Fold this protein.
Amino acid sequence: MKKSLEEHAARFDDVAGEYDDSQNDTEEYRACVSLVVEHAAPEEGDTVVDLGTGTGAIALALADDAEKVIGRDISEGMMERAQEKADEQGIENVEFGEGRFREPNVEEADIVVSNFAMHHLSDEEKREAIEVIAEMGPRRFVLGDVMFFGLPDPDEPFYGPEVDDPSTVGHLADVMTDVGFSLVAVERVHEQVGVLVAERAEEV
Ligand SMILES: C[S@@+](CC[C@H](N)C(=O)[O-])C[C@H]1O[C@@H](n2cnc3c(N)ncnc32)[C@H](O)[C@@H]1O
């Protein structure tokens, strides 16, 4: 991680009020949100965990179809905005609270999702985070994020080398399969943005 958790949290606290407007200007971000929501596809009775939930773009979009959605983040400011949006929309089955990728503060999930957040972690930290996700026992894990389909290009708009640490698609796929998932879909949104869908491999 190129900044501490506290630095990342403070950075997002500062922009929480403008975050939705600024992100929604980006076609690739909107595409990623749609794909993560589409692939998550919760069913009645499912508990969904959204890691790095921010202002709740994914968590709130999934609430209608899930039994319960748990949003976790390190930025109080982002989660306050998420809760305001839930209240405005009358959504009652979403809960937001402190949790980190490697200490999510959640025991179990049917589906885990994460969008545009895990790229703050180093390759090794992402491995630890995905191990923790697998331990929650979800049948599906959907990761939308900045990730390299080709060579890293710091001049591309999705990648700020001073704060971001995206992985290659290969690294993410390796880790997912190492912890017992099968990769069932790869959506390339941009050379540096994609959505990976992993499902628990059948026991043999
Ligand atoms: C770019 S925002 C994405 C928010 C949301 N998922 C979305 O799609 O709009 C990244 C979020 O990840 C959170 N974050 C960064 N590092 C984190 C960590 N280690 N654990 C949990 N959340 C983290 C930040 O606080 C921020 O709210």
About this structure: Strands lie at 47-51, 68-73, 94-98, 111-115, 140-148, 167-168, 181-190, 193-200. Residues 5-24 form the longest helix (20 residues).
